[in-house]
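ingest -> fold -> write
write: protein_1
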Amino acid sequence: MDFKKILFKTSSVDVEKSLPDGVILITKDGKIQWVNDTITEMLETSKMNLLTSNIKNFIENVLNLAMNAAIANKPVITKLIDKEMYFDMTARAIEEGFLLDFRYAAEITPVQEEKKEEDLTVNRNKNNFLIKLTNDLKAPIQSIVGFSQAMSDGLGGNMTLQQEKYIKIINKNSTELMYFIAKLLELSQTENEIKELDKKQFDILALANTVVKYNEQLCKGKEVRLTVKAEENLKKTVCTDSELIKNIMQDILEVILKSVDMGEVSLSLSTPDAELIEVKKLPKANYTLLSFSSSALLLSENDLECMFDPYKIVDSTNRKNVLRAIVLASVKNMVQALNGIVWVESKILNSTCFNVLIPDEN
């Protein structure tokens, strides 16, 4: 491969010696394939050492940052491992991996660095507090749910019609509160830190069928038809974290099914075309597109604006949708952990579709 053509689409420039930026070509797992002379000076090492190393040995969290920079098409701040040296890094996704460009960043003062670390600590403490709080609340609410259900079933003896009515209200509200707490806990956990990914091969269509079968109980008493659709040439065996995929499917289906009483709700699996990948500014790779559509779920512009951000809803007119935004914020965190993206499309008086693009790590 002619790396000069990758950079300049010409062979007339000596990239290794002339370019003022540090440039590195890496594979998707970070192995360094090519460097120019400038980057050896910036990283204070030799070209031979770089070409026999992984970029992760030099730059903190570099692969995730490269993915984010490539998708956003904007530079990100990177830092050397074990050294207070910072760079502006831009990334371009290519078939082999990433083309990374480094420039010296403006000096970050100790005050700025301290403020950044303080913000991270506050956010971490907030999430740890929410996790502890929700766990402490679960036990008493579970007791209310259990005892109210037992009384409704006649375990405490006969009750008057009025008492039965009140017990059913208590059971219904406590059950809904329990669900809310569970989703708030999930959001706090995904914001704090998602566990190390367990990537392995599995049949994604079989998983989709299992999740849809489980959610059929939410359709009882409703005029809702729940279906799974798969593209004819769909590659069923994928390699990623199946547990996160299952949670993503479950959460989005719950959001839809709790909001509609009729119509068709479908989960469609397909292979996206290259144009969609380009429009979404994703690195070249094999992707699976999960589309969750509902003919009865109609959303306003205000709904779409706060769809994945529950913190905005508190100060808006959409307070009733806080729970939905909490669930979808967790979905967004899980999708991003898989290096994918999620978005929603809604056509007025027509349908709503949640789309998830997940890369296949095979």
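write: protein_2
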Amino acid sequence: MFTDRVDAGHRLGTELARTLEPPIVVLGVARGGVIVAGEVARALGAPLDVVIPRKLGAPGNPELGIGAVAPGVQVIDRSAARMVGADEAYLEAEVGRQEAEIERRTALYRDGRPPVNLTGVTAVVVDDGVATGVTAVAALRWARARGAAQVVFAAPVGPAGVERRLASECDRCVVSETPRHLRAVGQWYERFTQTTDEEVRAALRSTGEDR
């Protein structure tokens, strides 16, 4: 169990610091992943930035993911989309909705700061947990497209087998706890409240000041 996202990030950062070599940029998956990533960035002595993938929800059930998007990246599970009746018109509209939300959050979180250059570095994509992995895939592809020499995915908790699931998308996958039956990421935290936009902005500001 992790006390909260700060505790999880500290422990994850300690684990990663044993094997990763600079140059490194840490990318927190908004929103909760940014809090974990802030601690990872401190442990690695690396800059922190944000990546904003968004899940594509099924018709009438937005919590059921049928894909994900990140800036310039679309990951769509066509088989799942067909099963839930998501036709091309629905997918186009849902992608548009989520891309608009990504633009809103990008402007809010960056607060005028340019993105950190990923060319030639090891990009460590950090989330507070992983379930299906679809948003992780979108985030990893985004980092790769930005020119990262290596892409690493890291999270405190995820289901058994998640490393194999993400192996084709990253150079390394580090998930500290991989229970056989993961019903919800939040069950592995004593405190797992929803992260606010202002908490994300504060984490990005404070880590930047540390650097």
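write: annotation protein_2
The chain has two domains: 5-52+110-210, 55-108.
The radius of gyration is 16 Å.
pipeline exit 0
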